[in-house]
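We were asked to recover a plausible sequence for a given structure. The inputs and outputs are reproduced exactly as logged, with field labels preserved.

PROBLEM: sequence recovery
POSITIONS: 280
GIVEN STRUCTURE:
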C-alpha cells in the first residue's frame, strides 16, 4: 500500500494503491446511508455503493448496509463517538482527497443525511479545494424514520405548524440556540446528539416559556431492530434520557402525544422507563 504523498501526509494516514503510473483522478460520493434499516437506503445510494472501490464509513452505518457493498471494496472505519474519534475530521477530509487522487471511486458513507449534522459540507469543501469531483446522495435522516415508526408526525394541523432540527452538542459549552424561538407552542423541536444534555435542553426550553407538560418523545436506534421509544413530557425528559446507550433523538412538541407508546403517568415523580422493542 502506498502512503499519502509527503506534502499531504499526516501520521497514521494510509491510502490504497500501488506504485503503478499515476491514474486519472477518481471521484468522491458523499452518501447518506439513512438511519440504519437497509430498506430505507435510496436506490441511488445503493447504486453508488455497489460501484465503490473504497468505502469510508461512520460507526452509525449498519452492518446490513455495509454488506451491500462489493466484496472487493476496501472498507475504512472512521467512526466517531463522544470524546473518541478514530480520525479527526481534518484527517478524514484529507483521506477522501488522497484516495480520489489515486484514481479511486470513493464512497463516504454517512449515517442519516450527509448535510444534516453530518459534516458533509466540510468534506465537500475539502474536495472542491483540492479539485476533486464530489457528488452528494441524500439520505433519510433519523428524525423522519423516528417520526414515521412512532406514528408521531413532525408537523400536524392544529398542533405543529413548524419543525426545527437542532443539535444538543457543541464543541465548547452548551449549544448556542434561540431558546425563545424554540419555546413557542405548536411546533416540533427535534434534538440530535442531545441525550447527555437533555436536562439542560429541557431547562432552557421551560425557562423560555415552553410548558413543562409539553409531550416529549425519545427514540433510540430509530428504524433498527432494537429501536426503543419513550414518551414523557418536557419536565421528565432528563430522567427519560438517563442510561440510554444508542444514538437517540429528543423530539419535543404537542404532536408527539400521537406516538404509539404508553405515556409516563407522572413526569414529576420518579421516572419509570416506558419502552417497546420493535420487530421482536
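RECOVERED SEQUENCE:
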Amino acid at each position: 500500500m502506498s502512503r499519502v504523498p509527503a506534502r499531504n501526509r499526516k501520521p497514521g494516514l494510509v491510502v490504497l494503491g500501488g506504485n503503478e503510473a499515476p491514474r486519472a483522478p477518481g471521484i468522491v460520493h458523499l452518501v447518506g446511508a439513512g438511519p440504519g434499516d437497509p430498506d430505507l437506503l435510496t436506490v441511488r445510494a445503493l447504486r453508488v455503493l455497489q460501484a465503490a472501490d473504497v468505502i469510508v464509513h461512520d460507526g452509525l452505518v449498519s452492518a446490513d448496509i455495509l454488506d451491500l457493498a462489493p466484496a472487493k471494496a476496501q472498507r475504512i472505519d472512521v467512526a466517531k463517538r463522544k470524546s473518541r474519534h478514530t480520525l479527526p475530521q481534518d484527517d478524514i477530509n484529507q483521506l477522501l482527497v488522497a484516495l480520489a487522487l489515486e484514481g479511486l471511486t470513493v464512497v463516504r458513507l454517512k449515517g442519516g443525511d450527509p448535510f444534516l449534522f453530518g459534516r458533509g459540507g466540510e468534506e465537500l469543501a475539502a474536495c472542491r479545494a483540492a479539485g476533486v469531483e464530489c457528488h452528494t446522495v441524500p439520505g433519510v435522516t433519523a428524525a423522519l424514520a423516528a417520526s414515521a415508526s412512532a406514528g408521531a408526525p413532525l408537523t400536524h394541523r392544529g398542533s405543529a405548524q413548524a419543525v426545527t432540527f437542532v443539535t444538543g452538542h457543541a464543541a465548547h459549552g452548551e449549544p448556542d440556540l434561540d431558546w425563545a424561538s424554540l419555546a413557542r407552542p405548536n411546533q416540533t423541536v427535534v434534538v440530535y446528539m442531545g441525550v447527555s444534555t437533555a436536562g439542560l435542553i429541557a431547562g432552557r426550553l421551560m425557562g423560555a416559556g415552553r410548558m413543562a407538560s409539553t409531550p416529549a418523545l425519545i427514540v433510540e436506534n430509530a428504524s433498527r431492530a432494537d429501536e426503543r421509544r419513550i414518551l414523557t413530557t418536557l419536565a421528565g425528559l432528563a430522567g427519560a434520557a438517563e442510561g440510554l446507550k444508542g444514538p437517540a433523538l429528543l423530539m419535543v412538541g404537542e404532536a408527539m402525544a400521537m406516538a404509539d407508546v404508553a405515556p409516563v403517568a407522572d413526569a414529576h415523580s420518579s421516572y419509570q422507563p416506558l419502552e417497546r422493542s420493535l420487530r421482536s
